[in-house]
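Database export, one record per block. Field names are fixed; values are copied verbatim from the stored entry.
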Amino acid sequence: MNDLGLTLLSCAAQVTALALAGAALAALAARRGPSAGAAVAFAGLAACVALTVAAFCPLPAWWAWPDAPPRDTDTAPRKSLPVPEQPTAAREASAGGLDVTSVASALRQAWRRVEESAAPAPGVFGRWPGSLAVMLLAGASLALARLLLGLWAVARCRRRSRPVADENLVGLLNDLCSRMECPRPVEARVTGDVTSPATLGWRSPLILLPDDWRSWDAADLRAVLAHEVAHVRRADYPAWLVARLGVALHFYNPLVRWLAGRLHLQQELAADALGARFAGGRGPYLRALARLALRQDDRPATGPARAFLSAGGTLRRRIQMLKTKNQALERPLTWRARLLALGVLAAVGLGASALRGPAQAPKPSGADERFFAGGFQSLRGFALRGAGQELRVEAEPTPFNLTYVSDTKAQGVYGIRPAAIFGRPGMKKYVESVDGAFAELFKQTTPKAPPPLTAAEIEEIVGLVFIRTDKTKEEGQSSLQMSLNVIRTVKEIDWKKRLVPFFPNAKEIAHNGKTYYKLSLREAPFVLAFAQPPDLGGDIACYFPDKRTLVLDSEANVRRRLSGEKVVAPARPWAADWKAVERGLFAVAFDASDKKWLHDRKQPETAMPAALVAAVEGTTSLVCGLSDEQGLRLTAVARCNSGAEGEKVHRLAKKALADGAAAVKKMAPAERNAAGDDLLFLDLLTWDWTIRRDGARVEWRAQGKGGLKEMIERLVPTGAEE
C-alpha cells in the first residue's frame, strides 16, 4: 500500500502545479471577458483530470527530466538521458542567451533537492504512505459516490418534471433557439424541485422552471429563457460535469476547487452576456434578474442535485457583476491566445508527468522498466501490500511485434514469450531442461562457447509458418515448418559480443551507415536451420534495430530496411482476429485462402478426416493463442468464406469437440498415457470449452484446469524433463 500512497502523493503534487498554472491563466483570460475565462478554466480542469488518469498509465523509462550533473560529493555518477552535442553555432548562441538544457538541468536539480529534504532515506518510508493512500482513496470514493448520487438525483428530477403545455412559452423558446443558433432542440419542463431556472443535459437538453413561472411577466420569462438557451449553446453542462469530476478526484486541493468555482461563475456571466443580447439589452435584462432575485426565496435546491443547479447566492452575485460598467465588454480570445494557453497547460502537464519522485530512481540494471506518471516504477505494474499478502497489478502484455515479418510466401506467423512462460512459479526445472537442450545444440557449432541466450532472457520470438506437402510420402504428407525471424530480449544486451563466438566467419557488412552480418548456413547448420525460411537459400543476414532486438531475414530484405525502404507485409486476412490472441503466451495465425498445400496431397484424401477437410475448405484464416493471465485459456478463431460456411464449420467443430470429449472420458488412464503426441490434444478436449458463431466468424474458447505448470505436469511424465 506504500507504493500506492507515494503514487497518490506524487499525483497530487503534479496536479497542484498544473492547477496553479490553470488558475493563473484563467485569471488573465477573465480580463477579456467571462467566455474566455470559462474556456481557460475548463481547459485547466480537463488537464487536471487527464493528468490524474495518466498517473496510472505506464510511461517509457526515457520519459523523465535529465538528471543534473553530479556534485563533487557524489561517489557514483547518476544515469541520465544522453544529451546530443550542440553545434558550435548553437553553443555560441546559448552563451549569450537562454540555454534550454541548462534550464532543464537546473529545474531537475532543484527537484532533487526538494526530494532529498522532504523524503526519508530510501526504503524508510514507514507506514504513513499506506495510511495516506487509505485516506485519499476513502475521500475520493466518497466524493465520487456523492457525484454519482447527484447525477441520479438530477435524472430523478428530470423524470418527475412535467412538460410545459403553454404555446406562448414554447413558441418563445423555439424562437430564441433559432435566433441564438442553438445546435440542438431544447425542451422546457416544470418541477417543484427547483426554486430557480436550471439547464440539464447535453445531447437532449431541457430547461427546468419552478412552479411559479406563470407569475413572471413577458420580459422576465424572455430573460430567463435566453440565459438558459445560452448555457445550451455554450455546452456548459458537460464542462461542469468535468469540473465536478476534478473536484471529486482532488477533493483536498483548494486550487482545483477554486478553478471549478471560477468556471461556474464565468459560465453564468458568459450566459448573461449572450442572453442579454436577445432579451432586449443589458438594462432590461438586469432589471429582469433583479425582479427574479426578489421573488426567489432562500430555499436551496433539494437533495444531492443542488451541486448541478443554480443557487440564490450566484444570482445575486451575477447582478452585482452586471452593474459593473466594463462587464458588458466581451473580447474573445484570439486563436494565438488560445493556442498559447493550451500550449502552456500542455507543457506544464507533460513536464509534471516527467518528474520522478523519491521512489522512482531508475535501476542501474538496464531492465526495460516502465515509469508511471503518478510516482511509482515497476517492470509490470505496482504492488498493493496488505496484511501478510501482496496483490500485484500487472500491466497488459504488449502485442507481438510483427514489424519485421514480411515474407509473402509464408502461410502464417507465430509468436512465443519464453521469459513469461518459464518465469512463472514452479517452472525452474523446465527452464534448466530447455537451457540444457539448447546448450547441447550450440555445442555442435562451437563446443567451448557458452550459449548466447537463455530462455529467461528472451522476451519474445516471432517467425513465419510454412505448410509444405510432399505427396510422395505415404504418411505425413503435409508438415508445418517454422522460421525464426525476430528475437527480442528482456534487457539490452551486446549482440555482437554474444554472437561472434558462434559465427567467427560471419561477414560484417556496412550499408547506408549501418551494419549487418551475413551468416552461412554451412557454418552452423544446426542453429541457422531454425532461422532459415524454406527456399531462402544457403545464407541469411541479421541486424540489430536496437539493443534488445535481433532480426534474421534475407540479405535483400535486410538491405532494404537499412536503406529506409519500407518492406510492406502482404494483406493478412487474419489481421482483425489476431487482436484476440496477440497478447498471449503463444499465438499463431494462418492464411487459409490458398489451399494449394491441401490440393497437392494424394487424392482422394484418406489421411485427413472428411470433417476436417470440409472445415479447411470453408475457411479463409485461422488464429490460435494460449494465455495464462486468469487461468490457462486457449482461443481459436476461424474466418469463413460466408455465413453459410461459418454455420457449417460451427456445426462440424461443435460435433467433433463433443464426440472427442466423450471419447476421452471413456479412455482408460493407461490408454491416455500411451497416446504419445496426441496427449496434448486429448488434454484440450477435457477443458471447459464454448464455441459460438457470428456470421462468418467462428470462435472457440477453452478454459484449462489450473495454469501452465499444471498442464505441463499432466503431459510430461515424472523425470522426463531431466
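Remark 1: The CA atoms of residues 675 and 681 lie 10 Å apart.
Remark 2: The two ends are 41 Å apart (CA to CA).
End of record.
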